[in-house]
């Protein structure tokens, strides 16, 4: 199996001519994924932006076997395809799901859980643009605290809850491999995709994917936001590998939150107390993460 790395990506394109908006983070991740996994890959994409921009008969933008799954069913469809591939004794066909945060964290969560439980060899990728973008930027359970959507206001009445922790949910299924990644760190993403491909069982990748249309940011800010979300500590890069959690980048101090929040209209209107609350939530998350890393590193069961 040829190793996947940023230097080894082929010139071949399997996601071209799509109708994504300029600067769409999800479409970039999908393009890299298919370049890396190649033409034998089978991909399942539920209702959402990537299916809307990719399956445009008769101008199909996907150059591999691709199927749109019902919104709630990515995991189930993936397991079915993987079971057939296993029954036929084929070993060179990556089976990949590529689903938005709404399709993963909300409506498809039971289906994802079932797929992780069935232990078929699948790679489930959630591109997280932090809202239901395809239907008009409604809040999902992956929308972060303070972000304005068309169903969550800004200002003092902004949503003050927490983003659903998909990595922990996936890891709690006892699967061999799960990781977070960001469009701002393509080499890290591809390394994790390579690791996921080698796993004999289910793996889960949760990838940060800016959406200029829904976030109100510049179309050329995608990569930069994919980096500043990491340096501000709001999106830790993590790997769950056979029972141990590893923090890939642990900054000694975090960059000011404004470097990430200010370029996005969805955070405009946040007041100082709300930004402090966001920073406090981030700090609690990191304390818990460090404890989780210590606990799993020392665990004899890991
Ligand atoms: C059962 C069902 N409910 C609702 C819809 C309508 N719908 C299609 S795409 C979508 C939003 C998808 O959001 P997300 O999964 O976050 O992906 P994104 O559009 O942000 O890429 C919704 C609500 C549907 N297709 N099926
Ligand atoms: S609305 Fe957002 S996620 Fe959808 S295609 Fe446009 S940039 Fe991409």
Coarse morphology: globular
Distinct ligand kinds: thiamine diphosphate, iron/sulfur cluster
- Element pattern in H and E: HEHEHEHHEHEHEHHEEHH
Round the Cα radius of gyration to an integer and report it: 18 Å
List keywords for this structure.
Rossmann fold, alpha/beta, binds thiamine diphosphate, globular, 302 residues, single chain, 14% strand, 8-stranded mixed beta sheet, binds iron/sulfur cluster
Task: Explain how this protein is built.
- This protein has 302 residues and is an alpha/beta fold.
- The chain has one domain (6-301): Thiamin diphosphate (ThDP)-binding fold, Pyr/PP domains (Rossmann fold, 3-Layer(aba) Sandwich).
- The chain contains eleven helices and eight strands.
- The chain has helices spanning 25-37, 49-54, 74-87, 101-106, 109-118, 166-171, 186-198, 212-215, 222-231, 258-261, 272-298; strands at 42-46, 65-69, 95-100, 123-128, 177-182, 203-208, 238-241, 244-247.
- It has an eight-stranded mixed β-sheet, sandwiched between helices.
- Helix 1 (25-37) crosses helix 7 (186-198) and helix 3 runs parallel beside helix 5.
- The longest helix has 27 residues, at 272-298.
- It is globular.
- It starts with 24 loop residues before the first helix and ends with a helix.
- The mean pLDDT is 95.
- Bound molecules: thiamine diphosphate (TPP) and iron/sulfur cluster.
- Thiamine diphosphate binds next to helix 2 and helix 4.
- Thiamine diphosphate binds at residues 26, 47-50, 71-72, 100-103, 129, 132-135, 140.
């Amino acid at each position: 199996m040829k190793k996947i790395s940023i230097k080894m990506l082929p010139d071949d394109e399997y996601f071209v001519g799509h109708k994504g908006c300029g600067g769409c983070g999800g479409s970039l991740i999908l393009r890299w994924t298919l370049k890396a996994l190649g033409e034998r890959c089978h991909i399942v994409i539920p209702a959402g932006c990537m299916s809307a921009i990719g399956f445009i008969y008769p101008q199909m933008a996907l150059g591999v076997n691709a199927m749109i799954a019902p919104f709630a069913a990515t995991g189930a469809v993936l397991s079915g395809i993987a079971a057939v591939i296993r029954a036929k004794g084929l070993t060179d066909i990556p089976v990949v799901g590529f689903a938005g945060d709404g399709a993963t964290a909300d409506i498809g969560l039971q289906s994802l859980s079932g797929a992780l439980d069935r232990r078929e060899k699948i790679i489930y990728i959630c591109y997280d643009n932090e809202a239901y973008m395809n239907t008009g930027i409604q809040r999902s359970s992956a929308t972060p605290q303070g972000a304005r959507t068309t169903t969550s206001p800004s200002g003092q009445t902004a949503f003050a809850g927490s983003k659903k922790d998909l990595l922990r949910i996936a890891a709690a299924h006892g699967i061999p491999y799960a990781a977070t990644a960001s469009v701002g760190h393509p080499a890290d993403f591809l390394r994790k995709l390579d690791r996921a491909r080698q796993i004999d069982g289910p793996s889960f990748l949760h990838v940060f994917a800016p959406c200029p249309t829904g976030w109100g940011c510049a179309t050329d800010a995608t990569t930069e936001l994919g980096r500043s979300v990491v340096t501000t500590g709001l999106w830790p890069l993590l790997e769950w590998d056979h029972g141990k959690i590893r923090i890939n980048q642990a900054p000694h101090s975090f960059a000011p939150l404004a470097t990430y929040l200010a370029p996005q209209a969805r955070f405009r209107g946040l007041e100082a107390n709300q930004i402090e609350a966001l920073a406090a939530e981030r700090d609690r998350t990191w304390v818990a993460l460090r404890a989780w890393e210590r606990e799993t590193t020392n665990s004899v069961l890991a």
